[in-house]
Amino acid sequence: MPRTILAGLAGGMTMNVTMLLTFRLLGFGWNGGGILLSSPVQSPKLIAIWTQIEPLPLVVANPAPIIIGMMLFGIGHAFIYRSVSAAWPTGIFQRAVRFAGLLFFMTFLFWEFFTPFNQLGEPLPLVALELLFWATIAFAEAFVIASVCERKVSGV
């Protein structure tokens, strides 16, 4: 159990850092102006939600609860990994790829389809870019969780 929690905390931290590098740095920009806000094809509704309509999303106005939430999701993901990984071929990379696929298809693909595409009218090219970001996030988190969970402990 302690290793699973540690794997989840490491995975959650990885998810936060990777989201910072993809969505914040490239997508929204440090001070605005990222491709997701400056693209001429972007949905005005999405831009307004992220920059104008009060209250702004917590991740913009007060990111601490979101960062903590992602850490908790990481712990949950590690427990899911522990429950399903035994059925997969051995090896960190092989298991990480499978787990990243699980996270991507069951969570991130659904999120992008249902919210940015469906509710916010985001155009498909930008949804595709966000899916690339989510795939990167899913693989980074899955690789860290698999690495911690599968690491062999030296006998003492």
TrEMBL record:
Alphabetized UniProt keyword annotations: Membrane, Transmembrane, Transmembrane helix
Tagged with keyword Transmembrane: yes
Bilayer-crossing regions: 7-30, 64-84, 96-114, 126-149
Name by which UniProt lists this protein: Transmembrane protein
Organism: Candidatus Accumulibacter cognatus
